[in-house]
Amino acid sequence: MRPTISSKVASFCTSPKVTLYLLLALAAVSVFGTLEGATEQGRYDLYYQSLWYRLLLAALAVNLLACTLKTIRRNVRDRSRFMAAMDEGSEGEADTVIERGRQALFPQLEAQGYRLSVSGDRCLAERGRLGRWGSTVVHCSCLLIMVGALASELGFVGTRFIYVGQEDGLILDWKTQSERELGFTVRLDDFKARYYPIDLQVTAYAPESREPLQTWTTREGERFDLPGSELSARVVSFDPFTRELHLKILRGEDVLGDYRAGVGEHTYHEGFDAGVVLYPTAFRDPILKQTYSHVTILENGHAVHQGEISINHPLVHRGVSIYQTAFERDKFGFWYVGFQFSRDPGKPLVWAGCVTLALGLLLAFAVPYRVVAIVSTTGSCRLRAIKGFNGEAGRLAFEQLTAKLRG
């Protein structure tokens, strides 16, 4: 019987060679995408979003879908196919004869975890049926990830700079390179930058002559004694942007007041005169520890959501993730923060696909699928290893099974 056109197409779509060629083609063109570098817009991802690259991915998806349908059909027809194999004497990997009736073997097989299917004088014993579906679950997971990636095209990624105390409901869409409405307004209420303890030098000067009296190398939380008195100072904080130093003046353990010192003449005390003039004269380059943006989400002029955004901790509202990507002060000393806004409707599908992919791999490798055929003869049974007993390890497993059944 000559194969039909549809059977030829199905055979081509499910061919492992086609899968291999598509994967090699994708790997080869991906190399050029890496070597080509960024586009004029400074984006590497545009190469992989081109139409011809997506056509390669679509061809791989069609191939994977055809293979998935084939494995589902194969799994559903396993029992009837294995029963036919018993009659034809095909698909067997090993066989042996046990001088006992099959009714005596059934309890022993069930004790080994096998499930029995009886049809006349023929019987199939299966174990690890879930493992048979492992490869199918892997195929479906890959398709789910692809669908999630396709659904991501319905989302967007954009950015916006917002000053502290201001609000905005527009972003610059990266794909269209134009402004778009968010659907809500973001107000930046406050911004704080935290640094690891900064080593700095503090110099004490005489109030009148401004001659240097003493210099200390210290950091936040440390304490030093002031010259010519019983007073000491504890460093509360130091802002490397404004170069403002905040000190607590103490006598023993009693706090007498605050002292704030900056560059130039921006030095003043609060509540107590320390008797000297203190300046921060040098400091090491600060190392950023964390940044915090306190924002309010507004809809129709009303606050509906408030939260704090920090590195690796975005704020999510209506499926839009708000990330903090940059911060700076302008020449007048006002803080502004760069935010990235992204909506990815395919993200749940991708995560679900990753979870089921791991589950499918676990089933495929950790739950071996084994099938034994039992054919009754006069006063004995013939056992044939149908599935899962190939190779040296399979031969040993079959020998161990028959030894237990004989025992």
UniProtKB/TrEMBL annotation:
UniProt keyword list: Cytochrome c-type biogenesis, Membrane, Transmembrane, Transmembrane helix
Specify the protein name.
ResB-like domain-containing protein
Where it sits in the cell: the answer is: Membrane
Tell me a GO cellular component.
membrane
The root-end lineage is: Bacteria, Pseudomonadati, Thermodesulfobacteriota, Desulfuromonadia, Desulfuromonadales
- ResB-like domain: residues covered: 48-205, 336-374
Q: What is its main location?
A: membrane
Name a Pfam family for this protein.
ResB
Q: Which domain of life is it from?
A: Bacteria
Transmembrane feature ranges: 20-39, 51-72, 349-369
PANTHER family, from UniProt?
CYTOCHROME C BIOGENESIS PROTEIN CCS1, CHLOROPLASTIC (PTHR31566)
The UniProt entry lists membrane topology as: Multi-pass membrane protein
Report the InterPro entries cross-referenced here.
Cyt_c_bgen_Ccs1/CcsB/ResB, ResB-like_domain
GO terms for biological process, alphabetical: cytochrome complex assembly
Origin organism is Geoalkalibacter subterraneus
Coiled-coil stretches noted in the UniProt entry, renumbered to this chain: none
